[in-house]
Amino acid sequence: MKTKAAVAWKAGSPLTIEEVDLEGPRAGEVLVEVKATGICHTDYYTLSGADPEGLFPAILGHEGAGVVVDVGPGVASVAKGDHVIPLYTPECRQCKFCLSRKTNLCQAIRTTQGKGLMPDGSSRFSIGGKPLLHYMGTSTFSNYIVVPEIAVAKVRSDAPFDKICYIGCGVTTGIGAVVFTAKVEAGANVVVFGLGGIGLNVIQGARMVGADKIIGVDLNPGREAMARKFGMTHFVNPTEVDNVVDHIVQLTGGGADYSFECIGNTKVMRQALECCHKGWGQSIIIGVAEAGAEISTRPFQLVTGREWKGSAFGGARGRTDVPRIVDWYMDGKINIDDLITHTLRLDQINEGFDLMKRGESIRSVVMY
Ligand code: NAD
Ligand code: AHE
Ligand code: ZN
Fold first, then answer.
1. Is 63 an annotated catalytic residue?
2. pLDDT-based confidence at residue 257 (cuts at 50, 70, 90)
3. What pLDDT band is residue 41 in, cutting at 50, 70 and 90?
4. Following DSSP, what letter does each residue of 157-216 receive, concatenated?
5. Among 155, 157, 153, 160, which Cα is nearest to 138's?
6. Which of 160, 205, 248, 311 would bridge with 178, disulfide CB 3.0–4.6 Å?
7. 238 preceded by a cis bond (ω within 30 of 0)
């Protein structure tokens, strides 16, 4: 079949809208009509050329929602007409990682996914007979996609696609890092570095679990109002204080119980660790840093009880947890609508990247 898609031909170049050939689903796979997709900073990171797994030409996008329109042989967990969110972190429930119960990082299809291919090693997208690569196993910048059954979460059919697409990455990543990775308890002091599409969801997750002080740190003063609306109690602009770490340690009476780095800046990652409370403070790295970047601190920071952790997709098990997060949204427990600052057509997708780069959007959503 043919599908409309925004194609990334090479690093650093704007996407172009193309009519692309798409092969149908094989055994264990489904064809999804993507109805809406968010634009995440990670799409920009890969397009910029900084991602060691960034291969071109490819169809980017990993924050989508849509409808199953066809299924391949043997598919049992979803059917035509089901509403789904594609998962860049699948959940096979059979691999060593899934069975461990210690991680959400299902590895069933990770190797081929990282090469931009389907689990059987093929690409289903092509243009003029030349293959185009998939991205993060999702490629939601295409109107139609083929994905493995284990890489979709079936969600309720009354939830609006243009809002729940954001649960495909940003919402789950931010709220999940609080709830599943850090397991922040009521009364804890929390610091969030970077108040964009991810950090604001960390803020609302911290409020949801009853955190006490919720301190937000961002260079962009324009982020303060939105962050306060989502539960931030104190705002710090790093350019306005002598030393961010000392300032936060003072503000929290000894250091943060939990900090979250939502930028991808290794210098800030160090600050996020070092502003944590001696003896127990945990710092969670969410931001994705460029190829070759390394983090550092004095080992004494860890010897004296601070912990460094990472979180991918918020530690959420996609097929299990994503439908619950959609329920939280539909029940009014979390706010997604106010974070979607721009809604665009596919042919305006480059404007979505520009808005992000200029710090003018929180989330732009493309509707097909
Ligand atoms: P974003 O561009 O919407 O937000 C980034 C924010 O950081 C902006 O508000 C910006 O002003 C602020 N910022 C930049 N440099 C700063 C600095 N030095 N000090 C303070 N604030 C600074 O991006 P996003 O979509 O929220 O993504 C944030 C990061 O999270 C990216 O690195 C992205 O790739 C990553 N990410 C990781 C996961 C995961 O599963 N681990 C999932 C999604 C996104
Ligand atoms: N390809 C990158 C890694 C990028 C990365 O860390 N991705 C996160 C999700 S970001 C979503 O916006 C993730 O889930 N990582 C776990 C994994 O298995 O990729 C690189 O630097 O190589
Ligand atoms: Zn993302």
1. yes
2. very high
3. very high
4. TTS-HHHHGGGGTHHHHHHHIIIIII-PPTT--EEEE--STTHHHHHHHHHHTT-S-EEE
5. 153
6. 205
7. no
Shared domain check, 181 and 269: yes
Burial of 187 (0-12, 13-18, 19+ CB in 10 A): exposed
* Residue 289: predicted pLDDT: 96
**pTM as predicted:** 0.98
**What number is the average pLDDT over the span 66-82?**
98
Contact 221, 237 (CB under 8 A): yes
Which pLDDT belongs to residue 343? 98
When divided into structural domains, the chain yields a total of: 2
Determine the atom of ligand 2 nearest the C-alpha atom of 170.
12
Enumerate residues 6+ apart whose C-beta is below 8 A from 9.
Answer: 16, 56, 57
As a whole number of angstroms, the distance between CA 131 and CA 110 comes to: 20
Cβ neighbour number for residue 360 with a 10 Å cutoff: 13
Residue 60 sits in the same domain as residue 135:
yes
Pairing, β 258-261 against β 190-193: parallel
Q: Tell me, using a 6 A CB cutoff, whether residue 274 lines ligand 1.
A: no
Contact present, 147 and 166 (Cβ < 8 Å): no
What residues make up the domain containing 191? 174-312
CA distance linking residue 251 with residue 20, whole number of Å: 54
User: ipTM surpassing 0.90, yes or no?
Assistant: yes
